[in-house]
Amino acid sequence: MMHRSSRSPARLVAAICAAALLSLGTAAPSGATEVDLEILLAVDISDSVQPDEAQLQRDGYLAAIASQQIIDAIQQGELGRIALAYMEWADAHNQRVVVDWTVIADADDARGFVDLLAEQPIGSGFHTSISAAIDVGVGLIEDNGFEGKRRIIDISGDGRSNKGRPLADARADAIARGITINGLPVSGYSRLARSRVPPEYLEEYYRDEVIGGPGAFMVVAENFEDFVTAIHRKLLKEIADAGDEGDTLAGAGGF
């Protein structure tokens, strides 16, 4: 039961003002480290990704993160640092953080991240739940202790979501929290994936149903061998904040 006399007018006004200030979100959470960008790399390890393809995918991330061009782009940001994490995912109950949130501000930071990632085994799983990858990714971003000017979940994969809750719902929830979902569809290589999803459909699927939020875009890798170039271009575009809603880049081409 509410007792209307429990607050004086002055206290009521103060409470309203405090609530208004909180709703503006002008301050970072207490103890949070401010960064230019938070990126969760969410990498498909479902059964359509063959072991050799999974290794090419991992090698692509290792090469891109350690690239001097990536370091230069990070250092040109307002704060000169980003927060980065790497997660593998498959079905609705298979998501694993391989390398937890790490501040990347220089080549030593990048090398430390890459060394940790290179030491970890590549997982595997069945089915494909992009919705669960997004849901888990949102939780990881919300609770990571960082406050980024932009927050991104990078979804790379070679198939459509076939497990977990509706992808549209997970996507909408992430966007409502101010999180951008970018995509890196890999088409035209995996024998299993090719039999299920034609390359042109996969690109359309990622564009229309996966990516979303401020500046969302995708980079298409024509195959897993093209992944090094594709992820390099994608990270550069994200760090430079050069994405346009619905934009698509081909993965082919030099750095």
What does this structure look like?
By secondary structure, the protein is of the alpha/beta class. It has 9 helices and 7 strands; from the N terminus they run H-E-H-H-E-E-H-H-E-H-E-H-H-E-H-E. A 5-stranded mixed β-sheet has the order 3-2-1-4-5, sandwiched between helices. A two-stranded parallel sheet has the order 6-7. Helix 3 packs parallel to helix 9 (227-239). The chain is globular, with a radius of gyration of 20 Å.
Topology record:
Layout: H1 9-24, E1 33-44, H2 51-66, H3 68-75, E2 82-89, E3 95-104, H4 107-119, H5 130-142, E4 146-157, H6 167-176, E5 180-185, H7 191-196, H8 199-210, E6 217-220, H9 227-239, E7 247-250
Parallel strand pairs: 1-2, 1-4, 4-5, 6-7
Antiparallel strand pairs: 2-3
Helix pairs in contact: 2-4, 2-9, 3-9, 5-6
Question: Keyphrases for this structure?
Answer:
9 helices, five-stranded mixed beta sheet, two-stranded parallel ribbon, 255 residues, disordered N terminus, alpha/beta, 22% strand
- Average the pLDDT over all residues and give the rounded result: 81
- In whole angstroms, how far apart are the ends? 65 Å
User: Mind summarizing the main beta sheet?
Assistant: 5 strands, mixed
Helix content: 40-55%
Q: How many helix segments?
A: 9
Radius of gyration: 20 Å
Strand content: 15-25%
Describe the global form: globular
Summing up helix and strand content along with how strands pair, one would put the structural category as: alpha/beta
Count of extended strands:
7
Low-confidence stretches: 1-28, 189-195, 242-246, 250-255
Q: Helix and strand string, N-terminal first?
A: HEHHEEHHEHEHHEHE
Order of strands, main sheet, comes to 3-2-1-4-5
